[in-house]
């Protein structure tokens, strides 16, 4: 009966045609809505939340050795901004003092990471032929060894070139701390997870500069886009002869130093 | 009984069941253990980016200070401290921006803060203004002479010690502590404005010192006196006696 009802001499009846049409349309509801949601989400990101698209940026930093006065305000500001433990051996950024003596002996010190600046020491009385300060931090390598060695994918490079740590996912195995050739990572004494400079990612994504750049009184630190013409960093790289730390390691750092001495490692 | 070739042997069935169980367990475990958003952009959880972004901001940034303190910013913008952001000295200000009534920022008025940048260190770049704070107007707070927002002193310092601190310190513990600088150095007022153009005088003869230390000179009682004709031969006095610390040998 039903068959004869539906199949009226080889012709499809209108009622059954419409039924089947609805059924076919209904089968598309699930994939359709998922797809639409995705498109809407992307559209909303474009239209409503147009503030930050990581694919539009590629961040880097410039540090002019000739301008650094070793006041350590960057170290202090970094600790405040990022709740880095105040103990003098946990640093996301620190400042080193290089003193090169007449016999080419090199003395590097960083008392308390320069959190409270530097003081004169007995070595200053000896014949120092040149001396300067070098701010150090994570170099935000383009080819980061720390990301390669992480066994759980807890550290990664964002589309805008910043190397971040996933604190919830980090197992605290310390591989990345060993792998970093710049000594820029440490294990947080409370969470027991890896910690490092984030270029103040929470500030940068809101259009602010990193805290260390914000407070540098002599503008020794410059922050900006590496690939856009109109960027303070590109200007810095045009006006100065720049180099990076340990170029032979092929880590391709995005922290560029101007007036770097050959003794700096 | 002969088995039909199409029938699956029993051991194979067991193996297949085991395999199915193992694969199901693996897939289930993977689905449970790996977060949903892992691998969306790369070998990491994409929500980790949001967690990094959601850190609260402490340093508000210089631009926002001008909204309320435009008078101070106006002064600072033309002074030597124009490149020094407000939060360098006043500390992180985001909480103060949120609630300016209950959160007050620090105001470093003591002598300890300015030397962080301005204490003399041989490692500092040449040309950066530095002082030896032990001899640069000791004890006095920096803000007495230098308005931090425009640190050029508003008045030319009246005391010689403001610039000649090392000499002033030496003299202050010497027998000449109560001899004014101007008693030996005639100082034109112009010297305080352009110190290298008009230079104060220096005594140039034995007779000048003899004015106090010669026999029968008009000097306070107890002043050591010598016979100027035979004391020291042809040498001028300051070849043996350092006038700012005459008791030294």
List keywords for this structure.
heterodimer; A: 265 residues; alpha+beta; four-stranded mixed β-sheet; 9 helices; 13 strands; B: 249 residues; mainly alpha; 10 helices; 31% helix
Briefly, what is this?
Chain A has nine helices and 13 strands. Chain A has helices at 2-6, 14-27, 29-47, 73-82, 145-149, 175-179, 201-204, 211-215, 232-239; strands at residues 7-8, 11-12, 59-64, 93-101, 106-109, 128-137, 155-157, 163-165, 186-187, 194-195, 221-225, 242-243, 255-258.
Residues in helix, % of chain B: 25-40%
**Pattern of helices and strands of chain A:** HEEHHEHEEEHEEHEEHHEHEE
Distance between the termini of chain A: 90 Å
Helix vs. strand class of chain A: alpha+beta
Work out the helix count of chain B. 10
Report the strand count of chain B.
0
Regions with little confidence, pLDDT below 50 for 5+ residues of chain A = none
The fraction of residues in strands of chain B falls at under 5%
Let me know the largest β-sheet of chain A.
4 strands, mixed
Mean pLDDT of chain A: 90
Oligomer, anyone? heterodimer
Number of helices of chain A: 9
Q: Work out the largest interface and the residue count of each chain.
A: A-B, 53 and 39 residues
In the predicted model, the low-confidence regions of chain B spanning at least 5 consecutive residues are: none
Summarize the amount of helix of chain A as a percent range.
Answer: 25-40%
Give the number of DSSP strands of chain A: 13
Looking across the biggest beta sheet of chain A, what order are the strands in? 11-3-13-12
The Rg value of chain A, from CA coordinates, equals 28 Å
Strand proportion of chain A, as a percent range, falls in 15-25%
**Molecular shape of chain B:** elongated
